[in-house]
Amino acid sequence: PTTLSGDRVTLFCKVELTNLDTGAKMTYTIVSPHETDLKAGKISLKSPFGQALLGKKAGDSVTVQAPAATFHLRIDSISIPV
User: Fold this and answer.
1) Sign, Cα dihedral of 51, 54, 55, 56
2) Contacts of 71 (CB under 8 A, 6+ apart)
3) Contact, 57 vs 7, CB < 8 A?
4) What is the pLDDT of residue 49?
5) What span, in angstroms and rounded, lies between the C-alpha atoms of 23 and 31?
6) 29 by DSSP, 3-state: which?
7) Does the predicted TM-score (pTM) go above 0.85?
């Protein structure tokens, strides 16, 4: 994690998002599949959310096709753990 720049969403990044349809704010950390814990805000990089966010920058809008619904999100900020 110390070698990551934090300008794009990658593994271990903490991503703050806004749901553009509802205005709801959310924060997730992108983790490997075996570390997934939705209650703790940890989503897999292989999940629909993780796949849609990877490589994107703060300010980008993304559409996530999840099994239950389609989400329109804006990436508000990206940070990396210290």
Assistant:
1) positive
2) 19, 21, 49, 63, 64
3) yes
4) 93
5) 25
6) strand
7) yes
